[in-house]
Protein 1
Amino acid sequence: MGSTGDGIWMVRAGRASIYADHFRDECVVAIGFGELRDYEADAEREELKRLYARDDPEASPGKIANVVGQVVRFLREMQVGDRVTTYDADRREYLLGRIESEPERLADDPEHTWARDVRWDGHVSRDTLTQPTRNTLGASTTLFLISGGAAAELLRKAVPLDQPLSEVEPEPEPDVEVPGDEEVDGWPLSNDEVMEKAEGLIEDQLVRLDWEEMQDLVAGILRAMGYKTEVAARGPDRGVDIFASPDGLGLEEPRIFVEVKHRPRTPIGGPDVRSFLGGRQPGDRCLYVSTGGFTKDARYEADRANTPLRLVALPKLRNLLLQHYESLDPDVKTLVPLKRIYWPVD
């Protein structure tokens, strides 16, 4: 066993979890902090602080201490056998595993400096977690230790990787006060961390929509982008969910065919993408929206398709919503009510 007891190390897979597939496929977790690269695994804290301050002269003492603390944790506090997790935002799931190696330097990776091998053995849907645990996991520090009730809930709700998360039902939300989380490791949240927390809360709101509301939201975003839309009638065998074009008739290009799958714990696979593309004509454009994300096979099918196809998972849908929110129809805004606020820059 490692040194964390019942704790679980969180190692984030980059901004918006862009390296989640890499962590999953290569069975690793990795860190990198900008230009801070030329140091040894046994470097003292003060030496690491000096190097970071040299590479980022504008960094505050608090930021330097926070970054160096994470480096030290990854290199020396994490131990072989410790539990570890990372978050995949597209699939809204936390991977769970155990560290299997000492830190290894990555000479040819421009984004990461050190990696550790991991044996991934389980996963947890964010949608099955209680709000206090979501708040704890929402701390966007690259690396921190999850303990107490949040760690216990992650382990209790984890299922084997080969078990679909769609088979796991959420527990009722406990009637407890949600604690504040203004600080991580004693350091106030940065603007980026506040933004990531807000984005997570907006995605939680999107997931709570029912299927028809999600379809109406996607159609509303397309209208806010300047298209006219036709939404398929309710009921089975409806074909394409949304059709959009500049004139609403499909006489002007682009003609956009939209499929909406609101299954937060079920990623779309390659066969679904191939089926959707069947029958498309030259000049057609396709949009596939999936709140459960997409498998690697689905992304491969999209990349090789003759018909231009854009896959939109939940993070991209959230970005589109925010980008066009002010232009949404009033009834669409009520689906995800948001308020603009102003926040001081760093």
Protein 2
Amino acid sequence: MEQAPPPDHQVQFRISGDRALLAVYGAGVDPAVNEKVRRMAALVNSIHHPGIEAVVPSYCTLALHYNFLHIRWADLADLLLDLEQRLDEIADLDAATVDIPVCYGGELGPDLAFVAAQNGISPDEVIRIHSAVSYRIYAIGFAPGFCYLGGLDSRIHAPRHPTPRLQVAAGSVGIAGSQTGVYPLASPGGWQLIGRTPLCLFAPDRSPPIPYQSGDTLRFRPVSFEEFEHLQQGAAP
């Protein structure tokens, strides 16, 4: 991947194939950097440039997919540098807190006991710790509606499965290393499954198709199996 960092400037640009430019504003999991990425994404979207086909914010990067018949990557980089000087024009972005009911353990969370044993605590303590924090959504990707969250307490970190499951049910809540998240669709997966939400987190015929966006926060709320079944009948957040 070609790199072209502009001189004396924090952002670095990387060319990704022939249709995308990646702007790198920092490294790692940093709420301040992620907020800058969100604001830059809002600015880019606000100008409706005909050569920009998609704007994809992530932890510390902003990917712009562009039509090279309308704009060159170097001109796109200059555009981003100019827009960065206008960040103050963007008002504070709305950020919602989305409640995610979760039935922990049992057949819905078959790896809860493993996560507890891995950390020398009880399953109830894993549930308490996991549901005590609001998790910022840093990025959405991998699958429609799949959130990359920050803020998992180190007391409940756990390794991935050595061999991924061939099928993980939609709504499964898992832990992998220092991350936690929810599978919005049934898919293969290697995360340690500690529970499941009855909510439908991705519905292509719904507007919007997912009930959150980057910058929002998720809050996991423990529910009983009876409440899980009741909510599952509605299947919508």
Protein 3
Amino acid sequence: MATVLGLESTCDETAAAVVADGCRVRSSVVASQVEIHAKYRGVVPEIASRAHIENVLPVVKEALSSAAVELRDIDAVAVTNRPGLIGSLLIGVTAAKTLAWALGRPLAGIDHVHAHLYSVALENPGFAWMPAVGMVLSGGHTSIYRVDGPLAVQLLGSTTDDAVGEAYDKVAAILGLGYPGGPIIDDLAQRGDPQAVRFPRTMLGRGSLDFSFSGIKTAVLYHVRGYQGRQHPDASHLSEQQIADIAASFQAACIDVITRKLQRALKKTRAKMAIIGGGVSANRGLRAALAQFQAPVVFPDLKYTTDNAAMSAGLADVKLRSGQTAGLDLDAVTYSQFQPA
């Protein structure tokens, strides 16, 4: 039985987890920075890096304590070393390399996007990896993949501009809502009319598996403030119901694009299953829309949708069993291994 200590610091969450056998989560601890960055309506890299420095050791200690293990019980150390904010990545990578060196344990470098795909296997022993279409939907990533196994992943398409979660944050800012925008808009959408406003669905041509969400964001801006934002300075002229209707209509457009891209990918790959990870995979509207989809759609448990270290520790177990280890020269890298530099 392999017990892996995982670390995560790609953006604004400092996380540590202990996972056994690649799927049994013994602990998962996340120190969130949402309140720190809320007033900026987005992550400030320098502030995030400083918070990681403060949080990394307490988070590791809490993960070990919650799992009822000590450092000597750890068989390997894993860290998400790509992609992400370079300053944030460096904190986690440095901590992981130090632990691996001090303990004399193997080190695994993990791609954050790959880990989001793997998150569906957490607490799901014997998960059947078959040819599947995988999607990662989050604030920083919107990509679609062919997945033939936990280590066999091929990029099929990605966003050409905003990630879908980023679009949610920007639309929330346009509507004068809080941060992060995803959960707020999802809540409002439950009370709104998804057909109130017909926002555009950008499909980027027949057969394309790439995404674009900047157009819908601009359409919301013009709808709220008038053409080029010149008629109204903000959303204060709108009623609560009008804001809910805009939120529901925006969400319906995003879900429509995601669903249609998923259909295209299934047809192209002839896969029989879809897996969806990342923060936006927690969206209630998306989960409801795909409940009766043409193929089975597997989501991770809600607690593993947002950034966490358990998904990295679980994936590390698979990589280590296949002989994929990292050296102490492991670098922090800002781009995904599935995308060009």
